[in-house]
Amino acid sequence: MSRHEKRVAAPKSWPIPRKTSVWVVKPRPGPHSKDRSLPLGLIIRDVLRLATTLREVKKILHDGSILVDGRVRRDYKFPVGLFDLIAIPKMDKYYRMLLDRRGRLELRRLEGKDTRKLCKIVNKTILSGGRVQLNLHDGTNLLGTNEYNTGDSLILSLPDKEISKHLRFAEGKTAMIIGGKHSGEIGRIAGRRVVRGSAPNMVRVMIGEREVETPERYVYVIGEDEPEITIGCSL
C-alpha cells in the first residue's frame, strides 16, 4: 500500500482544493476510516491555516499545542474523525468535526471548551466471564452491560472516556444523518423499517415538516429533545 496520497484521488469528503498541488498528507491507519477522517497535519495547514508548510505543522505538534479528544497528539498523520474534538488551549480555540450538507467533513467552531464527546455503539462483543464490551464508531472499546444496544449513542467525558449519558435509539429522539443526500441534517426519528435480506434496515427521520428515509447506519442519535452536544458554527 502506498504511503502517499494525490490530491485528485483524495476522498470526496475532504474539503480541499484538488489542483493546487500534487500531493496531500495521507492519514495513518487509526480509529477512523480514511473517507471519514482528516489527517491532523492537513487540518492545521489547509483548514485552520495555522501554518503554511508541513515543517511548521510539525513544530506546532512537537510543542504539544494541539489536543484531540483531550489528549496531546504529535503525529501529523493522526486521523481526526466524526465528532472528534480539537482543542488549542494556548489560543483558546475549540472545534468539533462534523459533516456539512454536501457530505464533506467540516470543522465547527465552539464558543468554549467542551469535554463531552458523542459516540455511537456499532457492535457488542462478549468477553470471557460474560463481560460485555461496547465497540464504538471511533474505535473505542468500553466495558458495559446488556442495557446498551447496538445503534444507541453514548456521551463520554474526556479525556478519561467515562460514560456520562446513554441515548437510546428510539422514536422521537433527535438524530443527525451522516451519509447520503441528507448528510449533515438534524431531525427526529419517526420510525424504523426492518428489511429482510442483505439490504440495510431503513429509518424515517422528520426534518422540519418533511420526512426522509435513510439507512440505519447513517443515523446517529445526538439527544432527547435537543442535541446533547454543542454543534458550533462554521469557520
Name the descriptors.
single chain, 235 residues, mainly beta, Structural Genomics Hypothetical 15.5 Kd Protein In mrcA-pckA Intergenic Region, Chain A, OB fold (Dihydrolipoamide Acetyltransferase, E2P), SH3 type barrels, 3 domains, five-stranded antiparallel sheet, 2 helices, 20 strands, 7% helix
Structural topology:
Layout: E1 5-6, E2 23-24, E3 37-39, H1 40-47, H2 54-62, E4 67-68, E5 71-72, E6 79-81, E7 85-88, E8 93-99, E9 105-110, E10 116-126, E11 132-136, E12 141-144, E13 153-157, E14 162-167, E15 174-177, E16 186-193, E17 202-207, E18 210-215, E19 219-223, E20 233-234
Antiparallel strand pairs: 1-2, 3-6, 4-5, 4-7, 7-8, 8-9, 9-20, 10-11, 10-13, 11-12, 13-14, 15-16, 15-19, 16-17, 17-18
What would you say about this model in short?
The chain is mainly beta and 235 residues long. The protein contains 2 helices and 20 strands.
Helix % is under 10%
- Going by helix content, strand content and strand pairing, the class is mainly beta
E-strand count: 20
Q: At CATH's second level, what is the architecture of the largest domain?
A: Roll
Beta-strand residue fraction = 35-45%
CATH fold-level assignment of the largest domain: Structural Genomics Hypothetical 15.5 Kd Protein In mrcA-pckA Intergenic Region, Chain A
Number of domains: 3
Low-confidence runs of at least 5 consecutive residues: none
Which geometry do the CA atoms define?
globular
Task: Spell out the helices and strands N to C.
Answer: EEEHHEEEEEEEEEEEEEEEEE
CATH C-level of the largest domain: Alpha Beta
CATH superfamily of the largest domain, by name, is RNA-binding S4 domain
Spatial order of the strands forming the largest sheet: 5-4-7-8-9-20
State the end-to-end CA separation.
34 Å
Count of helix runs: 2
Q: What is the gyration radius calculated from CA atoms? A: 18 Å
**How can the largest sheet be summarized?**
6 strands, antiparallel
Mean pLDDT over the residues: 92
